[in-house]
Design a protein that fits this description.
Length: 128
């Protein structure tokens, strides 16, 4: 997918228990249909994880990040933190490298039994 240059763009990813399941491990949200990784060299301005359906799962935890840092977008937290309308923000700007343009959900401790969240990432693709 080609990206416009010198514009603030938003890439949206989604975790949905009904579609993705909730087994422990890593779910690559950027590998889903019609999604892509951010382009290498782009400047990631901010990210926002927005919980649309509370995460459930006794003993489960979740975190959102990249291959470079599995807590880039939301630190590891018990599922109770992923309550209805909870928002996790990160406004640390970085230049996207080969391992920091993807979007991963890592489920630990136990399986999730419910949940849905959007991950919105704002970025700019420089002219050169």
């Amino acid at each position: 997918m080609a990206h416009e240059k010198n514009l603030v763009l938003v890439q949206e990813y989604e975790y949905d228990f009904a579609v993705d399941g909730g087994a422990t491990g890593v779910i690559d949200l950027s590998a889903k249909a019609n999604k892509t990784v951010l382009p290498t060299g782009a400047v990631r301005i901010s990210s926002h994880v927005i919980v649309q359906t509370p995460f459930l799962g006794s003993g489960a935890s979740a975190k959102f990040g990249t291959s470079a840092s599995d807590v880039d977008y939301a630190a590891n937290a018990a599922v109770a933190s992923y309550s209805q309308d909870a928002i996790f923000n990160d406004a640390t700007a970085i230049v996207v490298g080969a391992t920091s343009g993807d979007c991963l959900l890592t489920i630990g401790g136990a399986a999730l039994t419910a949940g849905k969240a959007k991950v919105l990432i704002e970025f700019i693709v420089p002219n050169s």
